Amino acid sequence: MTAQLAATREKAKPLKGEAAFRPLVHVVDDDPSFRTAVKRRLELAGYSVRTYVTAEQFLDQQLAEIAPSCLLTDLKLPGLSGLELQDRLRAVGSTLSIVFISGFADSDVRRKAIEAGAIDFLTKPVDSNQLVRSINAAIAARTRCCSQHLYIPAP
């Protein structure tokens, strides 16, 4: 890991107060201005947001699978790509809903991501309303998935 990445790396902290009740969006993108803009837009839409520079940084957080949440990830990242991140999450049984975003995707890459379970694949620059609609769909899909696996024993 580079010194620059180590310096920017921040361990996830538990959400507190009102933020603990808002859906959480994990944003993985190596462009700092894009991360900042997306974070602001999603917070305005009512989401809690955590940002990461790399897929490895996201995976290092050892995040608990807590609904409702989703992942917005760039396709091309330093280190693991967005598709490799998707593969790793699926390999460990994650049900985290994923929305991809990229300025470099062709139809084969889009198809592969969607066939592997991505909720949507957006192209940069993205319309902020479309971004929020896709995140809403991802949160809804994650909530449905988690509620189907919820078991409450009878008293």
Structure description:
The protein is an alpha/beta fold and 155 residues long. It has a single domain (23-138), classed as Response regulator (Rossmann fold), CATH 3.40.50. 42% of the residues lie in helices and 17% in strands. It is built from 6 helices and 5 strands. The protein has helices at 3-8, 32-44, 55-60, 82-91, 107-115, 128-148; strands at 24-28, 48-52, 69-74, 97-102, 120-123. A 5-stranded parallel beta sheet has the order 2-1-3-4-5, sandwiched between helices. The chain is globular and about 30 Å long. Residues 1-15 and 147-155 have low confidence and may be disordered.
Compose a concise summary of this entry.
With 155 residues, the protein is an alpha/beta fold. Helix content is 42%, strand content 17%. The chain is built from 6 helices and 5 strands.
Secondary-structure blueprint of this entry?
Elements: H1 3-8, E1 24-28, H2 32-44, E2 48-52, H3 55-60, E3 69-74, H4 82-91, E4 97-102, H5 107-115, E5 120-123, H6 128-148
Parallel strand pairs: 1-2, 1-3, 3-4, 4-5
CATH superfamily: Response regulator
What is the CATH architecture assignment? 3-Layer(aba) Sandwich
- Total domains: 1
Reported for the largest beta sheet, the result is: 5 strands, parallel
The fold-level CATH name is Rossmann fold
Query: Tally of extended strands?
Result: 5
Low-confidence stretches: 1-15, 147-155
**Helix run count:** 6
Could you tell me the mean pLDDT? 82
Give the radius of gyration. 15 Å
Helix proportion of residues, in percent? 40-55%
User: What is the N-to-C succession of helices and strands?
Assistant: HEHEHEHEHEH
The structural class is alpha/beta
Strand order of the largest sheet: 2-1-3-4-5
Overall geometry comes to globular
Distance between the termini: 50 Å
Beta-strand percent range? 15-25%
The CATH class assignment is Alpha Beta
